[in-house]
Amino acid sequence: MAETDLPKSLVVVDHPLVLHKLTLMRDKNTPSAVFRQLLREISLLLAYEVARDLPMTTQTIETPLAEMEAPILKGKKLVIVSILRAGNGLLEGMLDLMPSARIGHIGLYRDPVTLQPVEYYFKVPADIEERPVIVVDPMLATGNSTSYAIHKLKEKGAKDVRLVCLLAAPEGVRRVASQHPDVPIYTAAVDRCLNDHGYIVPGLGDAGDRMFGTK
Ligand code: URA
User: Which domain holds residue 96?
Assistant: First the structure.
């Protein structure tokens, strides 16, 4: 994806630690247990970036030495919404950093022929409109499922939505950015293209299978 094609809503988190860990994850010889651990570590680093502009306020506290007005997160705890099943891999590391977050789940699978999303589960906190929402889905491929999930969350009232994925294809970035220009997209890398089966190339294969050892 040429620099000029990048939508303004895209944030590529190209920190050396993220890129190093991503290279290890891409390697087809990396076993599932290591893959899962690396994903957990990268998601913590992505969580750090996506939380950078969360609203803040101050609170009066007493340190052992003095009273002070200290910065603290404002408003209700955020919600992390995992797109099943691969989203759960990103969720773990996010929760390491933000343990009080509320959690939502959206069950979607891609119809292998049409590549369109099919919903089989949807459960999110009732007051989602009052909370920042971070959608997690490791592979932003066609962008169909992710766009659909964001659309459903907005229907439920979500206003502040951010997307975190590990890897993205240019097609997916364009789709989400055009359908949801208000949603910032955080990713570790934007790869070359999609193949005929909707897989990201060079990518890392099927994230769910590699995470759960199902192939
Ligand atoms: N989902 C995956 O797990 N991998 C891809 O490359 C694309 C979608």
Answer: 3-212
